[in-house]
Design a protein that fits this description.
- The protein is α/β, with parallel strands linked by helices and 344 residues long.
- The chain folds into two domains: 16-114, MurE/MurF, N-terminal domain (Udp-n-acetylmuramoylalanyl-d-glutamate--2,6- Diaminopimelate Ligase, Chain: A, domain 1, 3-Layer(aba) Sandwich), CATH 3.40.1390.10; 180-328, UDP N-Acetylglucosamine Acyltransferase, domain 1 (3 Solenoid).
- The protein is built from four helices and 38 strands.
- The longest helix has 18 residues, at 326-343.
- The protein starts with 15 loop residues before the first strand and ends with a helix.
Length: 344
C-alpha cells in the first residue's frame, strides 16, 4: 500500500512541485552570486547535494572536507566561496559567493515548492484514496493524493498531508500530523506526534540566518510505534527512516536524515541529531542525546542521560558525558567520588 522502502526520484514529486528551469545568469542574480556566463547554454533544472547532483543540477561547497566530492561531481553549477572557485571542474560552472550554503537555499526555493493543502478543498480531498474499513475521527483532514490502507483508524483532528501513504491496520491517535511521509502497515502513532515536518537546517546569509529547505521524506516501516508528542523530521534531501518494529516513547525527537534500524527502543526525551546511523536492536535510556553524523552499531545500549559525541561499536554499553563505555564511566565516577571525600 505505502510503497515503503521503494526507490524514488528525489525530491519526491508526491510532496514537491518542480518549478521551471532557470538560466545561469538568472540564478546568479537571484542568489547574489557571480558567474562566468560565457560558456553555458543549457538551463539549470534542480538543486542537489554535491555527491548526488547530475547534469542540470546546482550544488554547493562550503567545507574543504568535501573537495573530493567537488572534483567528482556531475553538477552543472556549484555555489562556492572565492577560495574554492579554482577547484571547480571544467564541466561545472562556479557560482561564486561568500555564503554558498545560503545561496543554495535560495536556489532550492526557486526549483522546488512543497505541495500544500488546497484552499477551500473538502476535509477529505476527492483525489485521496481510502481503502475498505478506514475509520476517520471528527475533524480529520486528508490531503490531495494521499492513500490510507484498509482497516486504519485515525483519531479526531489528525492531519494527513498531500501525497502521504499510510499502510493497512495503522492506529493514529488524535491531533497527529503526518506529511512528506511513507508509513508501513501496523504502525501506531500516538496523540500529538508530528511526522515529516522540516528538519532544523540554517545557514548564515548576507542578511542574517536563513532556513535551508528540507526536500526529503520520512519512511516508517511496518509495526513501528511513535509515542505522544514525538517529532520525526523529514530528510534534508534524502530520507529519515525508522526500521521495522522499532518502538519510540513519548517526547522523542529524531533529526533529519537519521537512519534507525529494526527493533530499536527509545525511552522518553531521547534526542537524535541529524544524519545519525543506528543499527538494529539498539536501546536508548531516557534523555540520551546523540550528536550529528554519529554511527551506533547494532546491539549497542546507550544509558539514560548519556551524551554520545562519537561512534559507538556494536554490542557495547555506553553512558555518561561525553559518552564512553559504561565500565570506564563507572570507574571514573567512583574515582571522582573518592577524591571528593578525601578533600572533604
Amino acid at each position: 500500500m505505502s510503497g515503503v522502502g521503494s526507490e524514488e526520484t528525489m525530491p519526491d514529486p508526491r510532496f514537491f512541485e518542480k518549478l521551471p528551469p532557470r538560466s545561469l545568469s538568472e540564478l546568479a542574480l537571484l542568489c547574489g552570486a557571480e558567474a562566468d556566463l560565457g560558456s553555458i547554454t543549457a538551463p539549470l533544472t534542480e538543486v542537489a547535494p554535491l555527491a548526488l547532483a547530475g547534469t542540470g543540477a546546482v550544488a554547493f561547497l562550503s567545507d574543504r572536507r568535501h573537495l573530493a566530492s567537488l572534483s567528482e561531481t556531475r553538477a552543472s553549477a556549484c555555489f562556492v566561496g572565492p577560495a574554492f572557485a579554482p577547484e571547480v571542474p571544467a564541466h561545472c560552472h562556479a557560482l561564486v559567493t561568500s555564503h554558498p550554503q545560503a545561496a543554495w537555499a535560495v536556489a532550492a526555493n526557486l526549483f522546488f515548492r512543497p505541495i500544500g493543502f488546497e484552499p477551500g478543498a473538502p476535509a477529505v480531498h476527492p483525489t485521496a484514496e481510502l481503502e475498505e474499513g478506514v475509520e476517520l475521527g471528527h475533524g480529520v483532514v486528508v490531503g490531495a493524493g494521499a492513500r490510507i490502507g484498509a482497516g486504519s483508524r485515525l483519531g479526531p483532528g489528525t492531519v494527513i498531508g498531500p501525497g502521504v501513504c499510510l499502510g493497512r491496520s495503522c492506529r493514529i491517535g488524535p491531533r497527529v500530523v503526518i506529511g512528506f511521509a511513507l508509513v508501513g502497515d501496523g504502525v501506531s502513532i500516538l496523540s500529538g506526534a508530528v511526522i515529516g515536518e522540516a528538519g532544523f537546517g540554517a545557514a548564515a546569509g548576507p542578511k542574517g540566518v536563513v532556513d535551508i529547505p528540507q526536500l526529503g521524506r520520512v519512511i516508517l516501516q511496518d509495526n513501528v510505534t511513535v509515542g505522544a508528542n514525538s517529532c520525526i523530521d523529514r530528510g534534508a534531501f534524502g530520507d529519515t527512516t525508522v526500521g521495522e518494529n522499532t518502538k519510540i516513547d513519548n517526547l522523542v525527537h529524531i533529526g533529519h536524515n537519521t537512519r534507525i534500524g529494526r527493533n530499536c527502543v527509545m525511552a522518553a526525551f531521547v534526542g537524535v541529531s541529524g544524519s545519525v546511523t543506528i543499527g538494529d536492536g539498539v536501546a536508548f535510556g531516557g534523555k540520551a542525546g546523540i550528536a550529528d553524523h554519529v554511527t551506533i552499531g547494532s546491539g549497542a545500549s546507550i544509558g539514560a542521560g548519556a551524551g554520545i559525541i562519537k561512534n559507538v561499536p556494536g554490542g557495547e554499553i555506553w553512558s555518561g558525558y561525553p559518552g564512553r563505555p559504561v565500565r570506564e564511566w563507572l570507574k571514573e565516577t567512583a574515582w571522582v567520588a573518592r577524591a571528593t571525600r578525601r578533600k572533604g
